[in-house]
Amino acid sequence: MSTTLKKTIPVAIVFVVALLVMMDYFIVTPPTDAAGKSWTSGVVKDLQNWGIILTAFSLGFGAVNLFYFHSKHISRRTPDQWMFSIWLLIVIVIFTGVGVFMGPTSTSYNWIYNASYFALSATVYSSLGFYMTSGLYRALRIKNIESTIFMVVGVIVLLKNAPALAVYFPTLSAWGSFIENVITTSAQRGIMIGGALGAISLGIRTMTGKETGFLGRLTEEEKGGGAP
Amino acid sequence: MLIIVWIFILGGMEMAKKHKPQFRKMTGLDALPEMVGRAAEMNRPVHFTTGLGSLTDSVAPQLVAGLAVLAYVTELCANYGVKIIYSVYQAQVMPIATELMKEAYVKAGKPEEFHAEESVRYLSGEQFAYASAVQGIAERERPAANIMIGPFYAESMLFSETFNRIGSIQLAGTARGYQIPFFAVVCDYLLIAEEIYAAGAYLSGDPVQVGTTRGQDYGKILALILMILGILATAAGSSAITSLMGM
Q: pLDDT tens string for chain B (247 positions)?
């Protein structure tokens, strides 16, 4: 693939689209319409609609991938896999059939969604409690100074959230609140500021064509002559 | 403020053309060859996921950062002859991921070894269906290494604990503050927030890309100065800084 197709055109599209979206967000560019919105509003809305259409197409691509992958497992009778693959394809066909012929907002579709996926989803989410407990067990083992601090802080916050203990030991509540509202919040905000600056930096690199990770790892020639 | 940060970053890029800035060591990214090497020795695959990100929402930069690492890891896997499994949540990412993984195999000189339908797996667009499918891959295929870079939500603990239980070596990175502690507790290596955005620059070694992170650091210094000035001004009864920041 030529460098123009592989890098120049995608980077140019990213630059123009990003510029339009940012202009629409930050600047009211004349000419404006009757509602006082700049001309970029309509363009950005169109771009978003294109995005929705492309996403819908890619969903079809995903469905083909699923069918191809699981049909192969079924035909090969892959141990511990093929029966799940059959079940998955059956479920896809049922959901698609009900959705297409009765509508995705129909009572039947809602029923099968709520009776199967919704219940299973809640079950998986609930199982998170067990995973967190086993993770917590490992985290609270005292191995060095850092893990000791972690354990002490963790126990204070844990006890603070136990209603009975919070009633009998109000000091715990104050300590726990201090840890949550001062120490944790300030650290979280530090992470947020750093993350936001990182995202801006990545955005600028992407817009200017310096970040090409999403296009694959380019050779020095494809990067445009290579680094000095 | 945004314009100033832009100037810093563009300035950092220009300065980097004259003098290559130094990057501090990022253990998690340095460990990637070791992780893939371990998978080669154990004859097991490497699992990669970019989490729940979509290319059209606010977490898109995290997803793009994850894709940059995916390209690097795929190239490593191609060189070491290790199978890579990329679990996809958003179908819109599939064509991009397929293309960049194919390119990585071509670059490694082994295009015939890349099988898109085996390596790029669309699982589901529903959070817990996707989470269960990833857990299923972990249990059935027992990857030797698990790399998770991108936006993660409640499934972070499900993934990290499952892969930990099957003995995978794990690298996680996210800018979502609530999930960082979960990853920190369970995973072997962690990239925190801005580190994932710098990953592409770090792995590419391109001075211009590294230069942008220098500009980003100047932005952090500016934020710190404004915070200190804000605290002092507010303590003195002035709202000048908070008004300037539009707060």
A: 778 888 888 888 888 888 877 888 899 999 999 999 999 999 999 999 999 978 888 888 899 899 999 999 999 999 999 999 999 998 989 988 998 999 999 999 999 999 998 999 999 999 999 999 999 999 999 999 999 999 999 999 999 999 999 999 999 999 998 899 899 989 999 999 889 988 888 888 778 778 888 888 888 888 889 889 999 999 999 888 888 877 6
**Residue A101, min C-alpha distance to chain B (Å):** 22
Domain count, chain A: 2
Taking the model in full, what pTM does it have? 0.88
Q: Which residue has the tokens 């990953």?
A: B199
Q: Is residue A20 situated within a structural domain?
A: yes
The rounded distance, in Å, linking the Cα atoms of A183 and A199 is 24
Instruction: Output phi, psi for B72, to 5 deg.
Output: -65, -45
ipTM above 0.85, yes or no: no
* Domain contains A83: no
Residue of B nearest to A49 (CA): B56
Contact partners, residue B220, CB within 8 Å, separation at least 6: A193, A194, A197
CA distance A165 to chain B (A): 25
What range does the domain containing A17 cover? 1-76
